[in-house]
Design goal:
By secondary structure, the protein is mainly β. It contains 4 helices and 22 strands.
Length: 295
């Protein structure tokens, strides 16, 4: 399953799933009257609740036989790659999508209620050679330095008939952005947007910022590359629109170092952290969104 801090449900494709991603070894009893539909930033799925089933983590003694999850029966652009047939949401309970006629709970909440875990705390290590998830806190044996903690913010939204002000996503306050030490000319609301902060989302790769912030960032980088490498406005426009790409890591040499202030913690982004390598090419990794996301 995908480990996702940007959602809170636990669904898995079942054998009968019309999307061909069901696991033939996964058997469960479904509750057909408790239906559910979940839509993500990209992709969606529908399904039903399961009767209580034993769920745990391989290689550990963390498990419970009383976990209720969702059985995916149909999907649309959700399974876009091989290697997974579900998603494990680790967001706050306020983000969970309920079933028709029944409430849903995040997996870690259910494991704590069952006594299988002492706390819903977890940590993720994103090293490509050995990615790791720790349950119950932080695995200090895997640390090379101290851990920096920042406060999360409530998600606020009061439009289209909604009145939301609660912890849902892991939102952090974005307060400043610099390129090679020069601060971008942004107001107090240009970076964080209007939702209380930016979501730290393990299920997203790109960095998404509000349009005004992206415009300022792209203009700043264009001016640096125009001076150092002779980039034209057309070169920059095509690259930032992801219609052109770089072919060698040495092409990143003149890109600036970015520093993003996240709740008082300065996240340093070297060029390879925001210009991503896919196969043998390097593409721009910053997108526009009125709801900012730190992927």
């Amino acid at each position: 399953v995908i480990v996702d801090t940007g959602s809170s449900n636990l669904p898995l494709a079942v054998k009968a799933c019309s999307c061909d991603y069901g696991d033939a070894d996964f058997h469960c009893q479904e509750i057909s009257s408790e239906m559910i539909d979940v839509v993500y930033g990209s992709g969606s799925w529908s399904g039903v609740a399961t009767e209580p089933i034993r769920i745990g983590f391989a290689g550990t003694d963390v498990n419970s036989s009383s976990v209720t999850m969702a059985a995916i029966t149909t999907q649309d652009e959700f399974f876009t790659a091989d290697g997974f047939n579900g998603i494990m949401g680790l967001g706050y309970p306020g983000l969970v999508e309920d079933y028709t006629g029944a409430e849903a709970e995040p997996l870690l909440t259910q494991l704590v209620d069952a006594g299988a875990l002492a706390t819903e705390s977890f940590s993720l290590i994103f090293c490509e050679d050995s990615p790791t998830m720790a349950l119950g806190g932080v695995d200090e044996s895997a640390l090379a330095s101290n851990v920096s903690y920042v406060s999360t913010q409530k998600f606020s939204y009061d439009e289209m008939g909604y009145d939301i002000d609660e912890y849902m996503y892991y939102l952090v306050k974005l307060s400043s952005h610099t390129d090679d030490g020069t601060a971008l000319d942004l107001s107090e609301t240009d970076l964080p947007g209007g939702y209380g902060g930016a979501a730290v989302d393990s299920g997203t790769t790109l960095l998404y910022l509000p349009p005004t912030a992206v415009d300022a960032l792209e203009t700043s980088i264009y001016e640096i590359l125009a001076e150092k490498d002779g980039w034209s406005m057309e070169d920059a426009s095509m690259f930032f629109a992801m219609e052109s790409y770089l072919t060698d890591k040495s092409d990143l040499a003149d890109f600036p170092t970015l520093v993003l202030d996240m709740g008082g913690y300065e996240r340093v982004l070297e060029p390879e952290h925001y210009v991503f390598k896919y196969d043998d090419i390097y593409i721009w990794g910053v997108g526009e969104s009125t709801f900012p996301i730190v992927g």
